[in-house]
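Problem 12. The chain below contains 80 residues. Write out its predicted structure in C-alpha cell notation.
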Amino acid sequence: MINGGFYSKKDDWPAQYPSVVIAVDDIAAAMEKVRSAGGEVLGEPMDIPGIGRYVSFTDPEGNRVSMLQPLARAGQPKTA
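Solution.
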C-alpha cells in the first residue's frame, strides 16, 4: 500500500513537497535496505497510536519518502 498527501503551501514552512508513505512489513528490515542502498534514515521510528510505526528517509537521489509498518487489524492475518 502507498499513501500520502498534497498540502497547501505556506510561505514560512521549509521543504514543502508531496508526502509519500510506503507500507512495509518490517520497518527495521526496510530501514536497513534504505541504508544499504545508499539512502539515509531520518531519525528513529515513531509509534503512531492505533496506526503503526513510522519513519522518514531520503533515497540515494535525495528524494524524501516515509515508511509505515501498520499495526495488524482485527481479523487480518499478520503478514510477516
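Discussion. The first helix runs from residue 27 to 36. Students who got a different answer should revisit the alignment rule from Section 12.3.
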